């Protein structure tokens, strides 16, 4: 195969000669020329292909698009060193639409044209790299190559993939700086480059793309998270397991109407949790565990009405857990182990999954003596009734949890008390804060 770089160099030198003739000030124009040369490079190759020795002259292609796809797929096959599941073994001959895991469709811009619209070689275990010729697959809307062993970089010719909607390069061994060519994919909605070896900073422009989902976790990205992060309209953003440091930008609040899941775990973020996070009304999952966050949890977390999972574990947070968080209706899993919190509300103990271990919350009390009123099981008619339980020592959180969950009657009743804001929940909540030896609760057993 003719070396594509030789061609590039050849055309570059021709352009330079022409420039040298036309312009006295060559050097200033050189980099500009290079850019133009690159831009016209693919188009020229397409013309050259009519004379390309590698396309068997007896092969008939329904259109130029499929011929280009043939050239691209053959070039790719050529640089595949190992294909354990034989995904590419039938990539032979002109009928590219019959190749395994290559999908053709009618071109969106011309219903008379069949073109290669998708390639999905996920979980192929294929060893190789992504050749420049992949830029010839100009009609591709979907490219899924996850869980292979592609190494090297993302070719600059990817900027020809103007229709590409989904790009999944995850779980390969691609490396180098963030592949900036991705920023020029005008149709891109779904970007997944997680589990690779990309490094360095993440460009600001990434957050200006009109994406739906962004996965860049498990790389070696560094530096700050760009402060325009809030411009991103994604519903899912995963930046976990990188080396981001610095602040969690306050601009994050600009994602309030779109963001559902934000996963930032295992970085080196060291700011306070911005108060602005309280604006992320649609947030359902927030995980910022294994960072170096400082300060208090803002009370505003209690406004995140859709929150289901909250993981703040392994940070350096202090103060008390705002009780409003534990009142959130959809919250199922709240983990804040390994911090320096000193207080939590017993309300939190009612959550389905909850981890408060390794904090500075005083260790409590394992035994308690309660004299239950004898009529406690009987009642279902009274509107409200208060019981005073006298204890010899302050009850432990574990005990209270078991008290609420082991006896059916009490479970039912207590849940309703817990969710009723009108009721004197605060009495329950308070007893742990003031280590009194007496606590009291009310039952409201009418519906
Ligand atoms: C792939 O093809 C080779 C040669 O035809 C064969 O030996 C091997 O078993 C095939 N592998 C799979 C996973 O089908
Ligand atoms: C694709 O393969 C099928 C059978 O696998 C065959 O019938 C059909 O003719 C092939 N199409 C082309 C265009 O070669
Ligand atoms: C498709 O082909 C038909 C018949 O050859 C032609 O009339 C029509 O204009 C073509 N459509 C496009 C979008 O090229
Ligand atoms: C965080 O920073 C420390 C010290 O600079 C470094 O040792 C550690 O590997 C970093 N962790 C991550 C996840 O980047
Ligand atoms: C949020 O968006 C508004 C409007 O687009 C913009 O003016 C503002 O600077 C953004 N805030 C941050 C912190 O990025
Ligand atoms: C939340 O998401 C829904 C759609 O899922 C959307 O209609 C709404 O505007 C979003 N924002 C808020 C603040 O609820
Ligand atoms: C709760 O979240 C933690 C941290 O993400 C996780 O390890 C744990 O398995 C979850 N528990 C349940 C019951 O989902
Ligand atoms: C308690 O009262 C509710 C509503 O008044 C009623 O539906 C329910 O059956 C009663 N339960 C018992 C055990 O009497």
From TrEMBL:
Subcellular location per the Swiss-Prot or TrEMBL entry: Secreted, Cell wall
Signal peptide: 1-28
Keyword Signal included in the entry's annotation: yes
Keyword Secreted: yes
Main localization of the protein described in the UniProt heading: secreted
Annotated keywords: Cell wall, Glycoprotein, Hydroxylation, Leucine-rich repeat, Repeat, Secreted, Signal
Stated name of the protein: Cell wall hydroxyproline-rich glycoprotein
Organism phylogeny: Eukaryota, Viridiplantae, Streptophyta, Embryophyta, Tracheophyta
